[in-house]
Amino acid sequence: MVSAQTASTRWLVRIIPLILGGCAGFATYVLVKRICIDFFLHTRHQSGAATAILVLYFLFLLLMLVTYFRVLVVIQHNPGVTPLGQKAIQLREADKKRKRRSQGTETDLEAGERYESCPDSNPDSPGLERFYSKDVFMCNTDGRPFWCSSCCNWKVDRAHHCSELERCVKKMDHFCPWVGGVIGETSFKFFIQFTFYTAVYCLIVIIAAAICLAQRIQSGAGTDGVVIAIIALSAFFGLFTFTMACTSMRYACMNLTNVDYVKSKRVVHQLAIRVPRGTTKGPNYGVITYPLPKPGNGPGVHAPEESARDQLATRTFAIIKTEMGENPWDLGPYRNWKSIMGDSWIDWFLPFKHSPCASFENNESFYEMGPLYQQLRERFSLPSLSSEEEKETRELKKQLHSDGTDSTPS
Ligand SMILES: [Zn+2]
């Protein structure tokens, strides 16, 4: 089932650029030759109208093509997937080899569906530190991050497993056959620009063709089937891309993806929020301490031989839940928009710079947290970190940065 779906998607992905190219080529022929040259220039002698239409047409054709190729390049070379776990790499490698042996050269990456891996129970599980070195991250009821059983790895905040790609994609929006890949964190901005420019491009074609048609009818020249066809084609693509552009811009202003939006009204986020070391369970929250205790040591008890560095690296988190429908990453519409489209309005229109949110990750969180984060701390009366612990953390980070070794701070 998955295999068939992916095969048909692959087929679509190859054929769709040809269809789109054909449509744009046909529209260019009709608009330039039939409408501008034959009708406005030769029949009506309206060189001003012909020039205006041509300038606008080619400007938006160029913007549409540039943003389309920008999306294509990004989803091919930087789709925003998260790393696979060691087990997934081995299993997929083995599956590829097995496939090559049995079916010649055909390779496939759909093996992921056939195994299910449980969350890594190793307290030193690779990748776990990336989560607990932050002050807040999305977590499960047990306080550990979410686990992708197909990628065999911890899921970073806001990542979603894409079955077409067989990978977790950061801020996955949707799988788009029109561009042959997953729209996510790295491509969402360019996708918005592409759908917006395509909608404007279609509108220009519709307006030019409609004026031409109206003047033909007025002058008694009758209708032109090709011009009617181009209006119908542009209306179809125009309506489609206009809807996509509006929906995507709305999600951008809400700091939601298509995937988030589907469940945004009833979703309850669970977050691990850092509290002072040794904080105990509260009336309405549980706690978890990292690094996770090794087997044999009781819960939260760490081996006596651990260094001062390990103790410094020990971090306690409160496990809390948001109310239904709350979005911890909502920064307000304008800042949400800028986190995707860029800080300057020039970036909003040009497809060069990447979204600021794609490179945001810092010591505090994977994505910039909205005001809800502070409200949650107050709502659950979470104790704030002592200035001493904050200072220790800062120094530890500085030291780890400067020498990159395991040395114990004196
Ligand atoms: Zn995954």
UniProtKB/TrEMBL annotation:
<keyword id="KW-0564">Palmitate</keyword>
<feature type="region of interest" description="Disordered">
    <location>
        <begin position="383"/>
        <end position="410"/>
    </location>
</feature>
<keyword id="KW-0449">Lipoprotein</keyword>
<keyword id="KW-0012">Acyltransferase</keyword>
<dbReference type="GO" id="GO:0019706">
    <property type="term" value="F:protein-cysteine S-palmitoyltransferase activity"/>
</dbReference>
<dbReference type="GO" id="GO:0005783">
    <property type="term" value="C:endoplasmic reticulum"/>
</dbReference>
<dbReference type="GO" id="GO:0005794">
    <property type="term" value="C:Golgi apparatus"/>
</dbReference>
<dbReference type="GO" id="GO:0006612">
    <property type="term" value="P:protein targeting to membrane"/>
</dbReference>
<feature type="transmembrane region" description="Helical">
    <location>
        <begin position="194"/>
        <end position="214"/>
    </location>
</feature>
<keyword id="KW-0808">Transferase</keyword>
<feature type="transmembrane region" description="Helical">
    <location>
        <begin position="226"/>
        <end position="245"/>
    </location>
</feature>
<feature type="transmembrane region" description="Helical">
    <location>
        <begin position="12"/>
        <end position="32"/>
    </location>
</feature>
<keyword id="KW-0472">Membrane</keyword>
<feature type="compositionally biased region" description="Basic and acidic residues">
    <location>
        <begin position="391"/>
        <end position="404"/>
    </location>
</feature>
<feature type="region of interest" description="Disordered">
    <location>
        <begin position="95"/>
        <end position="123"/>
    </location>
</feature>
<keyword id="KW-0812">Transmembrane</keyword>
<dbReference type="GO" id="GO:0016020">
    <property type="term" value="C:membrane"/>
</dbReference>
<feature type="transmembrane region" description="Helical">
    <location>
        <begin position="53"/>
        <end position="75"/>
    </location>
</feature>
<dbReference type="Pfam" id="PF01529">
    <property type="entry name" value="DHHC"/>
</dbReference>
<protein>
    <recommendedName>
        <fullName>Palmitoyltransferase</fullName>
        <ecNumber>2.3.1.225</ecNumber>
    </recommendedName>
</protein>
<dbReference type="InterPro" id="IPR001594">
    <property type="entry name" value="Palmitoyltrfase_DHHC"/>
</dbReference>
<dbReference type="InterPro" id="IPR039859">
    <property type="entry name" value="PFA4/ZDH16/20/ERF2-like"/>
</dbReference>
<comment type="similarity">
    <text>Belongs to the DHHC palmitoyltransferase family. PFA5 subfamily.</text>
</comment>
<feature type="domain" description="Palmitoyltransferase DHHC">
    <location>
        <begin position="147"/>
        <end position="264"/>
    </location>
</feature>
<keyword id="KW-1133">Transmembrane helix</keyword>
